[in-house]
Amino acid sequence: MPDRLTVALESTGKKVFASALEWPGWSRAGKGPEAAVESLLAYAPRYAPVALAAGLAFGDSFDADVVEQLEGGSGTEFGIPSRPTAADGRPVNAAEAGRLAAIVASAWATFDAISAAAPAELRKGPRGGGRDRDRIVGHVNEADWYYAREMGIRVPAPKNREDTEALRAQMLELLRRPSDGSPLADRKWPARYAARRIAWHALDHAWEIEDRSE
After folding, report:
1. SS3 of 182, please?
2. Best CA proximity match to 198, nearest among 105, 130, 97
3. Tens digits of residue pLDDT in 2-31
4. Distance, CA of 164 to CA of 111 (rounded, Å)
5. C-beta separation of 183 from 190 below 8 A
6. H-helix or E-strand spanning residue 28
7. 50-64, 119-133, 170-184, 191-205: the lowest-pLDDT one
8. How far apart are CA 17 and CA 38, in angstroms?
9. 97, 188, 204, 101: which is closest to 146 by C-alpha?
10. How much is the pLDDT for 42?
11. How does strand 62-71 pair with strand 27-30?
């Protein structure tokens, strides 16, 4: 029997994101709600190794249950699941905090492994667009620095691999803390959304690199 997958939809007139609420990073987009959910379910085999590497059991099949629908904005239109859901505001106990951090760490490890194995020059899109590997890696690392600031972590921008690892360690340490569901550092992101956004960004670009590798 398929496992129940609770899903939130974030919609604009042109794009819809479907996000698995209990599985940070598992978010996909489509031109409408049905297409977004279909894309989300199609990515289950690609997400499974991330969950398993985090030490979590992961089902063989899923039935999507849309439990929340949000109006998206310019971020959604641009291609980012950018709106925290009501479910993201739930309290996080110690066990769940550890689970969220483990998934984020696994998403980063997946990105690192895929980018390390990829060629420096990636296949271009039909119009010749798309960043090459090193620019994508730089973009993901820079974005994590901005994400850390949204979590209340303020450090100089990473300049090397050692700095990146140190920043990630601080972010994971914060995600491992229980939370009452309030936005971190009195900003906008609750812990659940922070985990969801960080893991999505790493995996989205990991899969991009994988798809564009020769």
Report:
1. coil
2. 105
3. 899 999 999 998 899 999 999 999 999 999
4. 13
5. yes
6. strand 27-30
7. 119-133
8. 11
9. 188
10. 97
11. unpaired
What kind and span of H or E run contains 11?
Answer: strand 3-11
Note the helical H segments in 126-160: 133-150
CB 29 within 8 A of CB 89: no
Residue with tokens 């950018």: 82
State the amino acid at position 122 in one-letter form.
L
Distances from the Cα of 120 to the Cα of 107, 136, 184, 214, angstroms: 21, 10, 36, 10
Q: What does the block give as tokens for 136?
A: 């994508």
Note the pLDDT of residue 127: 57
Question: Which two structure tokens, joined as six digits, stand for 177?
Answer: 């803390």
Strands ordered across the beta sheet of 16-20 = 27-30, 16-20, 3-11, 62-71
The answer to whether the predicted template modeling score (pTM) of the entire model surpasses 0.90 is yes
The SS3 of residue 70 is strand
Which residues lie closer than 8 Å to 208 by C-beta, 6 or more apart?
136
Q: Who's near 101: CB < 8 A, 6+ residues apart? A: 172, 175, 176, 195
Number of C-beta neighbours around residue 152 at 10 A = 13
Q: What is the mean pLDDT of residues 193-205?
A: 98
